[in-house]
Amino acid sequence: MTKTSSHTPIHVIGGGLAGSEAAWQIAERGIPVILHEMRGVRGTDAHKTDGLAELVCSNSFRSDDATSNAVGVLHAEMRLAGSLIMRSADANQVPAGGALAVDRDGFSDAVTAAIEGHPLITVTREEVTGLPPEDWDQAIIATGPLTAPSLAEAIQARTGADSLAFFDAIAPIVHTASIDMDICWYQSRYDKVGPGGTGKDYINCPMDEAQYNAFIDALIAGDTTGFKEWEGTPYFDGCLPIEVMAERGRETLRHGPMKPMGLTNAHNPTVKPYAVVQLRQDNALGTLYNMVGFQTKLKYGAQAEIFRLIPGLENAEFARLGGLHRNTYINSPTLLDRSLTLKGRPGLRFAGQITGCEGYVESASIGLLAGRFAAAERQGATPILPPETTAFGALLNHITGGHIVSDDEPGKRSFQPMNINFGLFPPLEPGTVTKPDGVKRFRGKDKALAKKHATAARALEDCARWLKG
Ligand SMILES: Cc1cc2nc3c(=O)[nH]c(=O)nc-3n(C[C@H](O)[C@H](O)[C@H](O)COP(=O)(O)OP(=O)(O)OC[C@H]3O[C@@H](n4cnc5c(N)ncnc54)[C@H](O)[C@@H]3O)c2cc1C
Q1: Do 297 and 246 contact (CB within 8 A), yes or no?
Q2: Low-confidence residues of the chain, pLDDT below 50?
Q3: Tens digit of pLDDT for each residue in 392-451?
Q4: Does residue 19 have its Cβ closer than 6 Å to ligand 1?
Q5: Which H or E run includes 104?
Q6: Which atom of ligand 1 is least distant from the CA of 18?
């Protein structure tokens, strides 16, 4: 066994949002880092510069509201944890209302200068073409959605063909509490129990013939986003976008994901629905349900409008909308342990979008955690995980354990990338949110907002305690 000391460097592969943050967190704990970034030697299809932490598309880190927006809470937790990405974003802010948007060049320059100027970080411009060699006893792979093919192949060879996806096919995810259960009902098709089921595992939304026809018309007319040339067209059997299925024939969906067979409307048992939209539990907490078979290239605005035509989803709140993108990500819930280490390969961690989170801030936050966990281990300590009540912990839990793996859709496609959202946080203790004095009616939007405030406050308090610990 190789002897290591805190003078032995930790290797970070990929100098994007996650890798830069991971390198910073490690170096700030007095441990040397070698950061391997291929740009400068080899580019990607989306990056345009050689700068570290380049933002490949939008210049927004989304809402900065830490009282009622989950990504705002994540910003606040990252600031508490000494994030380089947040420090550089704050220093390069441009006006954007309630959002944190940045001057992209200034931001990337600030991250690059801080990393290159850190006495304990060495940046090497090279493509890492295989899994880290065993003598890199601690390494973090943070190579992102556009991981170079040779490394992707090496990861796949190690983890199995179904463990690495090259596209995501995301069906919209709905907050359970926003589904109208006076219209919908719980039932599995033919009441099948299956392993681990109850016979009531799906939420069903019924449609009559007129509603179905109006829905198909809306799907066909809906605005879609195209694929970029380099993305290719990743349609594969069993995973066509819902609007493409609708275009193939008016009855296609009724014989596919919207078939009404084996289902009886609990509110109206004598009338057979003409079509049924099914939603399946998405997280262990039961706070989120995904729309089965509804992967789509419809634009976000069109999705919200069209999917709210579905009976029972008129007031649906979406934790995330659907999409199909070029993306490289591993099946983290089966491959990684809770501290982001590849099972069976101690010391090798994954971080960033390749773990199945989505977005600049989320990727950086998982880099922050991976960096801290690796540093703790190098110093001989066991990594202490953030509480699940924090935004850090909620996202980590989605990646490493909170996701439900379905029996009827096994393999890589049942785990899909996710942004941070309040549906990933554990519910509040009963009685946490009570009717304020002097308020007559306390429900709907006011109550939902009060719950967000309480969840955000709990997260920040627990995060501060975790960081002190
Ligand atoms: C086209 C596109 C548009 C996007 N738009 C948005 C958006 O608007 N908003 C948003 O929040 N998110 C967006 N994303 C997602 C965004 O890219 C990620 O959230 C974020 O950049 C992920 O951070 P990361 O550190 O995991 O990966 P990246 O930031 O991509 O960093 C990975 C780094 O690893 C390097 N690398 C790859 N392979 C190797 C190798 N073998 N050896 C050495 N280095 C390697 C790459 O050059 C890169 O610098 C978009 C993604 C794509 C592909």
Answers
A1: no
A2: 1-2, 410-413
A3: 999 999 999 866 655 555 444 468 888 999 999 999 999 898 888 887 887 778 888 999
A4: yes
A5: helix 104-117
A6: 25
Say yes or no: CB of residue 229 within 6 Å of ligand 1. no
Q: Give the strands of the sheet with 60-63, arranged side by side.
A: 60-63, 99-102, 93-94
Neighbours of 429 (CB within 10 A): 9
CA distances to 34, 37, 52, 296, 367 from 23, in Å: 8, 12, 11, 36, 8
Residue 285: per-residue pLDDT:
85
Q: CA-CA distance, 403 to 155, in Å (whole number)?
A: 22
Token pair, residue 366, equals: 């998982």
Q: What is the pLDDT of residue 195?
A: 62
Confirm if 318 and 172 have CB atoms less than 8 A apart: yes
Which atom number of ligand 1 is nearest to the Cα of residue 127?
42
Rounded-to-integer distance, Cα 220 and Cα 153, Å: 37
| Residues counted in the chain | 469
pTM, entire model: 0.85
- What spacing in Å lies between the alpha carbon of 174 and ligand 1's midpoint? 26
* pLDDT at 410 (0 to 100): 44
Residue 360 sits at φ, ψ, to 5 deg, of -60, -50
Position in ligand 1 atom list of the atom nearest CA 367: 25
Question: Which residue, among 179, 176, 72, 80, has the nearest Cα to 420 in the 3D structure?
Answer: 72
Tokens of 25: 């967190």
Say if residues 256 and 176 touch (Cβ distance below 8 Å): no
Place of tokens 């009531």: 200
Q: How far, in Å, is the centroid of ligand 1 from the Cα of 455?
A: 30
The structure tokens 């935004």 sit at 391
User: What is the separation of C-alpha 329 from the centre of its chain, rounded to a whole number of angstroms?
Assistant: 11
Greatest CA separation for the chain: 74
